[in-house]
Design goal:
The structure holds two protein chains of two kinds. By secondary structure, chain A is α+β, with helices and mostly antiparallel strands. Chain A is built from ten helices and 16 strands. In chain B, helix 14 crosses helix 15 (325-340). The longest helix of chain B is centred in the N-terminal third of the chain and has 31 residues, at 59-89. The chains are: A alpha+beta, B alpha/beta.
């Protein structure tokens, strides 16, 4: 199977500005168009290991991140997101093209892929046990997720937990882990071998650094996982690492609060969420030190079956 | 009947769903993107399902269509709920509540309502009762969405509806009409005639809809007298499905042109039949075409309107954007305003909109 890394930089740019770069992320085929050189370079780093689909077939999502010409090319250059002739979002400074691309990929999934209950959460797996980390921003979800996948956990997703209606399994959609502000340095110190794209300052989420997903997680993106636990992380200065059980009813409501399409799905969403809450243990998790957190999660994953 | 190759892919499939059997994956990709832009993904799902073709759709596009099924049932649930809230809000008034357009198609279970997505509910009430209706809606949480005093005056004095109202909690919009064309338009279909012919929606106590002729004609007016064609193809498909469903009932075709004449709607009827045939291949009996010809424009204007409408009715997708598409859209925008009011009034209105009304630059949102 060809991966994006098989393309030389010039070929990659030609695909992006021509027929589109067809990248498979989990169950989704994306066709990315762009005329922004640094986005091409960023994709070459972050998406090197992803399957490259044949050009011109069916794509689930079309992402066109273009830099408008004219005066805008020189005066406060921008990147804008176009979808089939429409511009659903305001343009951003061109320096933010890479994080913009990630946000748009998330938006495409959460806006369309209603074959899944979609929860705003990171998902990791070890020993066949999937752990969901739902989280409002600022709870330390991405930091914890990045640390776990740098210590041998498989990354299913940093942003979108996909729970398939048909069987209640977690479907991986591994993509770069988006770290913000201080967590970038924290993870660099914790896992010096982690590969980052360029760090972008001044986005609406502050400074953003995208960490490349482990190659093994990308190769195993076709393997769905049984949900095992739902953990609500909360980083707290000086707190010892501590799991505290959450009742099932409370678990249900908290996951519903974090689901993008729960209301839209109606009875279907209720059934899928009820199944998820039924088969997963629920915890809140306070922590301050990543090493302590790793030990708690390894215990949660248990022994290899 | 063979389907002209020159038509956009989506239009060809709407005319003849069997066309999908010959599509490769790249064409499926294009079809779904055109359908998404025309807001017709769900209609596509039901169209293929009803034609027994869903199983023949390749896995990836079929999955997209199935995703929209879930969104569509959410929409259908929302419409029923919203209509029930409106019925409840107006219950004490003893005003006959007539649903228009999408809301009527959906509540009456018409083919035109199958998979049709829309954002606001339109109702028709007698003009002398407008104040009471508006007050009752306000008591139940709807508020006027237009705060600009000019907009308020524009709607209340000149238009056929009061300013759109939006529910403060649910965010759903309702358009309260007292007529189907503006007070200031040259053609003024008598709303009393429409209301007198209205029929109850089966199984929905307290709800009425326009009679078949009037429903078809209103749909035609809405499409061909308006200045915006963002939903042009969807609205044309409404007309197509109304024509197929009502046309199967005795008396529908025979009475259509006379009714259009009684309502001063000969012109929109003419356009509707013309472009239904040209775009969607709708079977219209020849004698009805002949009867409607009386309402048509002269040959010169007809060629001009062909040039304009045939450019704006295809899906608004870059793959269908021919030359002059934007110019046609602009010309029809001006025409839409022209039809709304006399020239001097129009000039004043456009001046006000361009230079005096506050700018709304805050469109779009962030991820």
């Amino acid at each position: 199977m060809l991966t994006v890394s098989s393309l030389a930089p010039a070929q990659l740019r030609a695909r992006l500005s021509g027929p589109g770069l067809d990248v498979q992320t989990g169950p989704f085929a994306n066709r990315i168009h762009s005329n922004i050189p640094h986005l091409a370079a960023g994709l070459a780093v972050l998406y090197a290991d992803y399957p490259l689909n044949e050009a011109g077939g069916f794509a689930d999502f079309h992402l066109d991140l273009g830099q408008p010409g004219g005066i805008r090319r020189w005066w406060r250059p921008q990147v804008r997101f176009e979808q089939d002739g429409k511009f659903p979002f305001k343009p951003l400074p061109v320096a933010q093209a890479q994080p913009f691309c990630e946000w748009m990929m998330n938006w495409c999934v959460s806006n369309r892929a209603h074959g899944y209950l979609i929860v705003h959460a990171a998902v990791v797996e070890k020993h066949g046990r999937g752990i969901i980390l739902p989280a409002p921003p600022g709870s330390g979800k991405s930091t914890l997720c990045a640390a776990l996948v740098c210590r041998g956990w498989r990354l299913l997703s940093d942003e979108l937990a996909l729970v398939r209606h048909a069987d209640g399994l977690l479907v991986p959609v591994p993509r770069p882990v988006s770290l913000k502000n201080r967590s970038i340095e924290v993870i660099r110190a914790f896992a010096p071998e982690a590969v980052f794209g360029s760090v972008v300052h001044g986005t609406m989420k502050g400074t953003v650094g995208l960490m490349r997903a482990p190659g093994d997680s990308i190769r195993r993106a076709g393997e769905a996982v049984v949900p095992h636990a739902i953990v609500f992380p909360q980083w707290e200065d000086g707190a010892p690492a501590e799991l505290e059980p959450v009742t099932r009813a409370r678990l249900f409501m908290r996951v519903a609060d974090n689901a993008f399409n729960y209301t839209l799905l109606g009875a279907r969403g209720f059934d899928t969420l009820a199944g998820l809450a039924q088969r997963s243990a629920g915890y809140t998790f306070r922590y301050s030190k990543l090493d302590e957190a790793m030990a708690v999660f390894d215990a949660l994953a248990g022994e290899a079956p | 009947m063979s389907v002209p190759e020159s038509l956009p892919l989506l239009v060809r499939v709407l005319r003849s769903p069997q066309e999908v059997l010959a599509l490769d994956l790249a064409q499926w990709d294009l079809l779904l993107r055109q359908a998404a832009n025309a807001n017709l993904l769900v209609s596509m799902l039901y169209l293929l399902e009803d034609a027994g073709l869903l199983a023949a759709v390749p896995a990836a596009p079929r999955e997209h269509l199935e995703w929209t099924r879930l969104a569509a049932s959410n929409h259908a649930r929302g419409v029923r709920y919203e209509v029930a809230r409106i019925v409840a809000a107006l219950a004490g008034l003893d005003v006959p509540l007539i649903l228009l357009k999408g809301g009527a198609y959906a509540m009456a279970g018409l083919d035109a309502g199958r998979g049709r997505l829309f954002t606001d509910i339109d109702i028709l009430v007698p003009k002398p009762r407008l104040d009471e209706v508006e007050a009752a809606l306000m008591l139940h949480g709807w508020a006027s969405a237009h705060h600009d005093p000019y907009d308020q005056r524009y709607y209340r004095e000149w238009m056929h509806e009061i300013p759109p109202m939006v529910h403060v909690r649910r965010g759903n919009a309702i358009d309260v009409h007292h007529a189907i064309l503006p007070e200031t338009a040259a053609e003024r279909p008598d709303p009393d005639l429409l209301r007198a012919a209205a029929i109850p929606v089966a199984g929905e106590p307290g709800l009425f809809m326009l009679a078949p002729h009037d429903m078809f004609l209103h749909s035609a007016v809405h499409l061909f007298s308006d200045g915006e064609f963002d939903h042009g193809l969807r609205d044309l498909l409404d007309l197509h499905r109304l024509a197929l469903q009502f046309g199967a009932e005795p008396g529908f075709w025979e009475g259509l042109a006379p009714r259009a004449q009684a309502l001063q709607l000969g012109r929109p009827l003419y356009y509707a039949l013309r472009y239904l045939q040209r775009m969607l291949g709708t079977p219209v009996p020849p004698e009805v075409v002949r009867a409607a010809a009386a309402g048509g424009p002269g040959p010169l204007l007809r060629s001009l309107m062909d040039a304009l409408f045939l450019r704006v009715l295809p899906p608004h997708h870059p793959s269908c954007a021919g030359r002059f598409g934007a110019a046609a859209r602009f010309a029809l925008y001006v025409r839409g305003n022209w039809l709304r009011m006399p020239p001097f009034m129009l000039a004043r209105h456009l001046f006000h909109k361009a230079f005096i009304s506050p700018r709304d630059d805050a469109k779009g949102e962030q991820a």
